[in-house]
């Protein structure tokens, strides 16, 4: 049994994938299940943390002993993360956040009209929540963790993203043809802003979650 090294700490974890509505029945979304974020929430609770799990469109059992906040869109996720981050020791952004959302929302269902071409969907940028919480640092010494999926030059691209986002740790997953086999397995490299590089071998999402919390605990001092 692991010692409760997150006791007295408040950690915020985002999970799942945002949905950006076009009208009351349609949205732009992604395939994120939220499993990695839920594993992070469960392991943090097991290590004694107070956990706020901000879940975007997940269909997973509620983890025990965790404050669960449900959101739909990136804008809602941003509000919830900024609010919870105000007194957090660590923020882990495991959610897949839509980079863009439809510029307009139709309050009634969009209808097809006979003999008429469809209207193009115009998109606008969503706020970058990870970059924002990293720039703000609501609390001194707050540790901020991001996730990134890269297809090539994984480490170089990961390093560049870590610098661009301004977070302390970036969990980089290699995705692509060579890695699709056995995709239920998780393999990652955790890059640190201090130049550190921690490879995490294939294994359950809980194992990766525990490595992330080990690195967070190191940085919390
Ligand atoms: O830029 P990219 O989407 O590759 O970065 C992924 C990381 O940034 C994830 O941790 C994700 O939660 C976060 N992110 C965010 N806000 C966005 C897009 C991504 O916080 N608009």
What topology emerges from the helices and strands here?
Layout (H helix, E strand, L loop, with lengths): L9 E7 L3 E4 L2 E3 L6 H12 L3 E7 L10 E5 L2 H12 L4 E4 L6 E3 L20 E3 L3 H8 L6 E8 L3 H12 L3 E6 L2 H4 L5 E7 L4 E7 L1 H16 L1
Parallel strand pairs: 1-4, 1-6, 4-5, 6-9, 9-10
Antiparallel strand pairs: 2-3, 7-8, 10-11, 11-12
Structure overview:
Residues 6-217 form the DNA/pantothenate metabolism flavoprotein C-terminal domain. GO terms for molecular function: FMN binding; metal ion binding; phosphopantothenate--cysteine ligase activity; phosphopantothenoylcysteine decarboxylase activity. Its cofactor is Mg(2+); FMN. 29% of the residues lie in helices and 29% in strands. The chain is built from 6 helices and 12 strands. It has an 8-stranded mixed β-sheet with strand order 5-4-1-6-9-10-11-12, with helices on both faces. The protein has a two-stranded antiparallel ribbon with strand order 2-3. Helix 1 (35-46) crosses helix 6 (205-220). The longest helix has 16 residues, at 205-220. It is globular and about 65 Å long. The relative contact order is 0.16. Cytidine-5'-monophosphate binds at residues 74, 93, 95, 97, 99, 126, 128-130, 146-148.
